[in-house]
Amino acid sequence: MIYLRGNLGAGKTTLVRALLQALGYTGRVKSPTYTLIEHYEVAGLHLRHFDLYRFRDAEEWEGSGFRDDFDGRNICLVEWPEQATGLLPPADVSLTFEILQDGREVLLHAYSDAGQKCLNAL
Questions:
Q1: Percentage with pLDDT > 90 across the chain
Q2: Domains of the chain (ranges plus CATH)?
Q3: Residue 28 and residue 50: Cα distance in Å, rounded?
Q4: By the 8 A CB rule, do 91 and 81 touch?
C-alpha cells in the first residue's frame, strides 16, 4: 500500500507512470482522475492506481467495489488517500510531493516492515 500525497500537479501520476515504465509497461498510463482506478499487470505484478481526488463518501466506497482491490495481492498506489480516511488499509509507504520554486521535493516514509524493505532497496 503506497500513499501518494501532494498538491495538484506535484508529480504523483508522473511518478506512477515512471514506475510502470521502469517495470517494462509499454502501454498508455493515464491519470485515473475520472475513473478513480486504473489496473495494470506488468512484470508479474498486479498494480492498482487510484486517484481519490473526486471521492466524497463511504457509500461511494462501498458501491465502487474498491475493497476487493485491497486483497494483499495487489500493489495499490493511492493518490489523495485523505479522501478515504478510515476506509483504506494503512500505508506501507507514503510519498509526499512538494512543489519548490526550482523543482520538486519528495519525502518518503515507511510505516511497516514491508515499507521499510522497499525504502532500503532504493
A1: 69
A2: 2-89 (3.40.50.300)
A3: 16
A4: yes
Cell numbers placing 3:
500513499
The grid cell for 48 is 492498482
Structural contact between residues 101 and 10, judged by C-beta atoms closer than 8 angstroms: no
Nearest CA to 76 out of 68, 104, 29 is that of 68
- 29-46: pLDDT as tens digits: 988 888 889 999 999 999
Provide the 10 A C-beta neighbour count for residue 94: 19
Helix (H) or strand (E) holding 119: helix 113-120
Map residue 77 onto helix, strand or coil: strand
Buried residues in 24-54 as b, exposed as e (16+ CB within 10 A): ebeeebebbeeebbbebebeeeebbbbbbee
